[in-house]
């Protein structure tokens, strides 16, 4: 329900603002997304069709302080949001403070992912409907401030979903496999390109069911939950990129939080 409430809210915002003089103002949370009238925005984003009208969905950045950004005729106020904290202990010191060769490897892998998510290919569809990649519970929400062995690190820009080793991971939306390889931090990692600047990434897999170049339909198995890379236990680490911004996957699906 929260996903549809969010979509309806922004469609209503766009409709209301059309009766006013430009610029059109919208306020939205850090790492969320906005739905803009295509005729009033000519930038990058994922195009959807709603009621025979074309809209562009634009991902917003993670911010620590309020920011104002211009998107065509729109002025978007991006509001900081506190997502909580996460404190974990990792005994393998090389995963906390890696040796130089591993740092160089991790840096190269980061840049490779960054290059991939800059791409803009044709969309497979014109809707923004997702299913959970693992139909389970959330063990660590998006955006938490992280502390590893007591030391502050970058925010957790993904959603962790519970799953035992070997549990099936499915494509939440139709797309093309543009990465299926092993990374230092992410372990076995898959990236799907859904077109329109929308990408989803899956880390710590036990094994792959797909290879680079495959086209997968929504619901197809792409791999299996594991605990490869920097982890303290088996789970799926799920990221969503839209126009190069990592957005909150919780806005796209409806999963409950783990209670233990």
Please characterize this protein's 3D structure.
It is built from 3 helices and 20 strands. Mean pLDDT is 90; it is low at 8-20. The protein starts with a helix and ends in a 13-residue tail after the last strand. Strands 8, 11, 13, 14, 15, 17, 19 and 20 form an 8-stranded antiparallel beta sheet that branches. The longest helix is centred in the middle third of the chain and has 17 residues, at 100-116. It has helices spanning 2-17, 93-96, 100-116, and strands at 24-29, 33-37, 46-50, 53-59, 67-71, 74-79, 85-88, 138-140, 145-148, 151-152, 159-162, 168-170, 175-183, 187-195, 198-205, 207-208, 215-216, 221-224, 235-242, 245-247. The chain is mostly beta strands. The chain has 2 domains: 2-79, no CATH class; 85-251, Distorted Sandwich (Glucose Permease (Domain IIA)), CATH 2.70.70.10.
- Helical amount among residues, as a percent range? 10-25%
Mean of residue pLDDT values: 90
Termini separation (Å)? 24 Å
Number of E-type strands: 20
**CATH level 3 topology of the largest domain:** Glucose Permease (Domain IIA)
Low-pLDDT regions: 8-20
Q: CATH-wise, what's the superfamily of the largest domain?
A: Glucose Permease (Domain IIA)
Domains (count): 2
H/I helix tally: 3
What is the SS-derived class? Answer: mainly beta
Shape: globular
CATH class of the largest domain: Mainly Beta
For the sheet with most strands, the description reads: 8 strands, antiparallel
C-alpha Rg (nearest Å): 19 Å
Oligomer: single chain
CATH architecture classification name of the largest domain: Distorted Sandwich
H/E element sequence: HEEEEEEEHHEEEEEEEEEEEEE
